[in-house]
């Protein structure tokens, strides 16, 4: 009986380790990146377009998998109309006409793909490049902190007067529903616009919390992969891969949750104007917002933010690696159980942020895993971070620090078809240490 009990305990211990998972970074008993993501989309052949989408969609419309669609110019799904896209459907954005798809306020998109049959938005060029076409814009009637309503008219040149109302966003309904985006890929978007900047892979403006947004991948975008203006957005299992702009950018009073999501940056494609994995801000200019309204607040949990450098120290010396997270004045961030690996530094506060208890209680980092970063948390243009070290290094925050390569940190990030960015089992062995560069956990 004793031998049986001992054997049973050993068996349960082994099984427990096989099925265990790290609580930090992206999580899942299985690698949820399998099947629906694509990390080498330039090798994919989606065929030739068989149908054209152009102008205004003014009645309920269904796009089918048997067709491949060419998105031509600025396409709007108008108020009260639903655009349904079948799993496996391919929509190609036209390069010459700066194609984009906008779901107007009050309209819906039902793009509900499947793990083995995702919906794909991509470029129509044979040799695809970041910024080949515009991107996907969803507009809702949830609140922002802007004065009046906002507009995305600047993203659309040569609009006729009848289309201008379809570019507006904002309202008083945080529970609004703009539809479903699930198992969707957006590739090679972010077209550059004169005097405006870049389109984004996915722009969510005043989108409400009844909208379902999960398992969305934006890859090789010339602008921001995911940009959120206002609204109450819940993003789950979002992937940004080698974006030139920011991976996730939150602004204009949004009250959002970003969970179980991944950003992979490359120092060789990043924009020179300071692109980050995560940027949290409440405005671009103070005069454009109403301070009686809510400032931006983001809850970010189980994120994995990775800089994919072959030689991190060399890339840092060349100025190619920046911070992973940037927090601006009057914005709140509650980040927990996340991994930040290979940045310079991990986190940067805008210089306008005064380091005091009131502000630090609005910017939280708990249960974090900081790995192989040149410094952890700093204020912009200030190399003395002693106050921040003392604050976030308190054992009550349960943050840990490591110095190991990405290949040692993650299960299998070098697999080109099925990378696994989950933290290695039992990677974190040491107790939580005081926040300081010399206190490094054991990774052996």
Give a nutshell description of this structure.
This protein is mainly beta. The protein is about 10% helix and about 35% strand.
Structural features, described:
The protein is mostly beta strands. It has a single domain (42-382), classed as Pectate Lyase C-like (3 Solenoid). It contains five helices and 32 strands. The strands form four sheets. It has a 26-stranded parallel beta sheet that branches. A two-stranded antiparallel sheet has the order 10-11. A two-stranded antiparallel sheet has the order 13-14. A hairpin with a 3-residue loop joins strand 13 (192-193) and strand 14. The longest helix is centred in the first third of the chain and has 18 residues, at 2-19. The protein is globular, with a radius of gyration of 22 Å. The chain starts with a helix and ends in a 21-residue tail after the last strand.
Low-confidence stretches: 4-20, 429-444
- From the coordinates shown, what is the CATH architecture? 3 Solenoid
Mean pLDDT: 90
Rg, alpha carbons: 22 Å
Major β-sheet, in short? 26 strands, parallel
Q: At the third CATH level, what is the topology name?
A: Pectate Lyase C-like
Oligomer: single chain
The first-level CATH class is given as Mainly Beta
Instruction: Report strand %.
Output: 25-35%
Residue share in helices? under 10%
Shape: globular
Class per helix and strand makeup: mainly beta
Q: Please provide the count of β strands.
A: 32
Number of helices: 5
Number of domains: 1
> What is the distance, rounded to the nearest whole angstrom, between the alpha carbons of the first and last residues?
36 Å
